[in-house]
Write a structure and sequence with these properties.
about 170 residues, elongated, single chain, 8 helices, mainly alpha
Length: about 170
Amino acid sequence: MKVSHESEFAALVPILPIFLSYMLSFVYLGIYWNNHHHLFYASEKLAGNILWTNLHVLFWLSFVPFTTGWMGENHFDTAPVALYGFNLLMAGIAYNILTKALLSHHTEDSILSLALRNDVKGRLSMLFYLIAIPITFWSSWAAMAIFALVAIMWLFPDQRIVKQIISR
């Protein structure tokens, strides 16, 4: 975000879309960071394919600053919002691939396997992204509302891994 050279609050109005897109992306990155931390904390085994799938997640998350900036600078126009949604979808898919790779190296009674058995929020997130991306071409604000809804849904902590760790 570029700082305004004017000192009145009204000077901040033009950068409001940039601030809002930054705020949403910050929340998303925080959600990924927290869930990633729990995921690896509960992991008992690591392997080369897990490290590569982890890099795949980081690859898609590394685009978030670009898609965030383009969306904010263009005041939530259709193409930037659609690309932002695609970025979220691909990061979600990559995270799902990472969890599958981790699970392939764990027994069915491991903390990770028991915790990730039923990933309703993960599947709903993918579905919402798939719905929001085409909706962008009708209303970018409606798509943004869906992206915000997914973020809000994940703000409620996912306690599956924590519950498994505590129960041991």
